[in-house]
Amino acid sequence: MNKKQSDLSRRRFIGSLSALPVVSFLKPVESLFTGELSGIDSFDNSGPLTYRLFVDDNQLSDLRNRFANLDIFADLREELDSFDRVAERAFLKNDVQYNDHLIDLNRIGHAAPKMAFLYLMTDDVDAARLAVESIETIMRFPTWDYFLEDGSQVIGLQRAPSSVVAVALCSDWLGDFVDGETRKRWIETMGEKGCEACFLSTYGMRYPKRVKGWTMDLTSGYFDHRPDQLFDLSNWPYILDKTNLKAVPASALAIGAAAYEAEMGRSEKTDRWLEQSAFSIKSFGKIYAEDGSYNENLSYANYTSEHLAQGMEILTRFRQLDLTDEINWTGFVDFMYGMSLPTTDDPYGIANFGDAGNGMMSSVPFWIANNFKDPRSMWFAHNMSRAHNIWSVLWHNEESGLPPNDGPSLYRSKLDWITARTGYEPDDLVVAMRSGPPANHEHADRNSIIVKCYGDVLVADPYRPPYANTDPSWRLRLTEGHSALLVDGTGHQYHDGKEGTNPSDAHARIVRTVQYGDVISWSSDATQAYALVTPDIDSVVRTVIIVAPTNTVVIIDKVKKKSTASFVTARYYAKNNDGNGSVQSIQTGFSLIRPTASVDGIALCDGGVDFESGVLDIAEDRALQHPFVDVRSSSQSRNHLLVTVLQPRSSDRPGAEVSVSSADGIATVRLADRYLRIYDSGPIPEFELS
To answer: 582-586 and 589-593 as β-strands: parallel, antiparallel, unpaired?
Structure first.
């Protein structure tokens, strides 16, 4: 098929769909849901309904030019051009297991729209053929997800949504390369196996008391890959209602409904699907915090936000329902910057609290910049995003944006996640603490810290421990697996892992922040979290003081027991997942060492302090990736003030000479020619710098 034929047939197809009648949306939904629209007041149906899901014909030339010529998309072009089509066709022909939702269906569902997009951008006919072959393979899967309601009805959480999106986008972007009969068959199957599954999952989250029981499909190939991950889903309708796994099917439901309606006409189905999608997407206005922060952290925020943006786009284009203001997206930009933790090896790194891994793609920052004219988001998209994808192309903006301010700064989100920094370059100091309430994908990490300076992470948070509680390395999810405080070797409350990555009951809160000149400080009270495990605990407060000119970090752990004396331990992990980190402990202090930088630590505690290096008692290869040093009180007490001083250093920046001493109840930290005096005045110590 040549370019002229392709463009002409696509215009003819779109034109035929533009003539579909426009009818009232609200009334049918009221009859279906007894008027329960929960704040979704009306849908304005003015304007024609078309099959142009995300791209209008008059945008296509600019998009093709953008994709073909902008340097920012060079890696994406290389990724799509170099996709191994021979291997993929061999896989489709010989290796697909039609019950393997976890790996095989996911692989196909991601490859198909990429090939369709490449065809849309370049008229690569072979890419179009591979997209068709991929969708035909998806059609042959008996079910599209591995979760069930009432033992038999498929509910869509990830694989059904991704399959819906793949079918919808390929049906759209391939245009008349696909004949009408084939496209109709695809769309009908998508509605039956995909949209209904996505509706059932989001409806169950909306009305959890009506759910007849969610379980995992034991016939799925999922268990060939993860035999130890059979989770109890009985509370999942409640748990997932506040997580990324609601955004994914909600967005797919909007995309699938728009495609289905364009092909099959308006019906009770599409009204029902779109209303449910709109309800679920709107509800994220109460899931993101008031300031735009998101409690599953940036990697999940990227995943969630990209899906929400897609769904919002569809609802705006096809129902003129604009839900973009439900979330504080400009505040979300603050969250993106606040959680950034760039290093030399990973300029796009983040403070990886919980299960977070990678940082933001550029797609959502571009989308925010376009919708809210936010120059900071634009700068982030161009300079701090880890990669670009097809949504980055669709939402790209060429403006350069506005960089963040230099100099020391403090970011505190409504989640009580807090970071202090001297800048946004890899060499700059960043100190991050996880305080705040429980959340999905969390760890038992209240008051834990991460320190980055001189191009590397020097005090680390273990990277993505296992989800399954049957894996001994699941222990890394506990307080003992973090740079946090232990009382008699015990951390704070966490769940048993039977339900997966759900929230615990552990709370902490920031009770004071200070920023005065070149000094930044905060205090976080985690008493409730620790007392759930050790009721004799009366107070657990961690105070952090940062002296920016010397990059010095002082950590003060104040612990008070009601009746029984205890030991306290401040544990500090080094980064060694690449095999290039180590720890050293001696009688007078310790070091956490990376190839080009390190942090030296000294400490003080009434009754003395001991330093001991170690690893957790888990599989040796995993344990060695996470060496730590324990800073432990030498004696038991009901009232501890443990002061740890961390001084980052590099080969060409030796850092300040520091010492710590105590007299008359005052701890004094000497920083070159300055003195930090710490007064044990209660749960929150007072301090002065002179």
So the answer is: antiparallel
Strand partners, 430: 421, 452
Q: Which residues, in sequence order, are bridge partners of residue 649?
A: 598
Cα Rg for the chain, rounded, in angstroms? 27
Question: Bridge partners of 597?
Answer: 650
- Which residues partner with 521 through β-bridges? 514, 545
DSSP assignments along 380-430, one per residue: HHHHT-S---HHHHHH-------PPPPS-EEEE-TT-EEEEES-SSTTS-E
Assigned architecture for domain 409-689: Distorted Sandwich (2.70)
Q: Name the residue type at position 666.
A: I
Distance CA 387, CA 365 (A): 12
Q: What's the per-residue H, E or C state across 148-210?
A: EECCCEEECCCHHHHHHHHHHHHHHHCHHHCCHHHHHHHHHHHHHHHHHHHHHHHHHHHCHHH
> Residue 477 gets which letter from DSSP?
G
CA atoms within 13 Å, Cβ hemisphere of 109 = 25
Helix (H) or strand (E) holding 561: strand 552-561
CB 113 within 8 A of CB 165: yes
Q: Which three-class secondary structure string do you get for 481-544? A: HCCCEEECCECCCCCCCCCCCCCCCCCCEEEEEEEECCEEEEEEECHHHHHCCCCCEEEEEEEE
Query: How far, CA to CA in Å, does 116 sit from each of 130, 132, 198, 237, 390?
Result: 8, 8, 23, 34, 11
Amino acid at site 199: F
**pLDDT given at position 665:** 87
Using a CB cutoff of 8 Å and minimum separation of 24, what contacts does 363-366 make? Answer: 363/306, 363/309, 363/388, 363/389, 363/391, 363/392, 363/394, 363/395, 364/302, 364/305, 364/306, 364/309, 365/333, 365/336, 366/392, 366/395, 366/396, 366/397
Closest to 98 measured CA to CA, from 131, 144, 156: 144
SS3 666: strand
What integer pLDDT is reported at residue 652 of this predicted model?
86
pTM for the structure as a whole = 0.92
Point out the residues of the chain with pLDDT beneath 70.
Answer: 1-51
Per-residue pLDDT tens for 248-293? 999 999 999 999 999 999 999 999 999 999 999 999 999 999 999 9
- Cα gap 357→485, rounded to integer Å: 23
Domain boundaries, the chain: 3-22+51-59+98-280, 409-689
- Give CA torsion, residues 7, 13, 18, 22, to 10 deg: -150
The values of phi and psi at residue 668, to 5°, are -120, 125
9-23 burial, b for 16+ CB within 10 Å, e for fewer? bbeebbeebeeeeee
- CA–CA separation, 557 vs 541, rounded Å? 6
State how far the Cα of 109 lies from the Cα of 192, in Å rounded to an integer: 17
pLDDT at 655: 83
Q: How would you classify the pairing of strands 628-633 and 639-650?
A: unpaired
Instruction: Identify whether the C-beta of residue 559 lies closer than 8 Å to the C-beta of residue 573.
Output: no
Q: List, for residues 387-419, the tens digit of each pLDDT value.
A: 999 999 999 998 889 999 989 999 999 999 999
Q: List CB contacts of 445: < 8 A, sequence separation 6 or more.
A: 353, 354, 434, 461, 479, 482, 484
In this structure, are strands 409-412 and 153-155 parallel, antiparallel, or unpaired? unpaired
Tell me the three state secondary structure of residue 246: helix
Q: What is the distance between the terminal CA atoms of the chain, rounded to a whole angstrom?
A: 77
